[in-house]
Design a protein that fits this description.
mainly beta, 1 helix, 3 strands, 60% strand, elongated
């Protein structure tokens, strides 16, 4: 079974001093047996920068 997720890599500030998070897309592979069986991840070459305020509730 395959899924995709975003992994946060680094926190940085833009020119206005607002914090943003650099994220990398990951392919998540699971065994499909049950939820507790370990799987593995593979990083993909897709990245995005997201404002911290969009990721957390204040």
């Amino acid at each position: 079974m395959e899924e995709e997720a975003w992994k946060s890599i680094s926190v940085m500030q833009n020119k206005n001093g607002e914090p943003h998070v650099l994220q990398q897309k990951m392919k998540v592979y699971t065994s499909g047996v049950d939820e507790e069986t370990p799987g593995y991840t593979r990083p993909l070459m897709k990245h995005r920068i997201v404002p911290v305020k969009d990721l957390v509730e204040l």
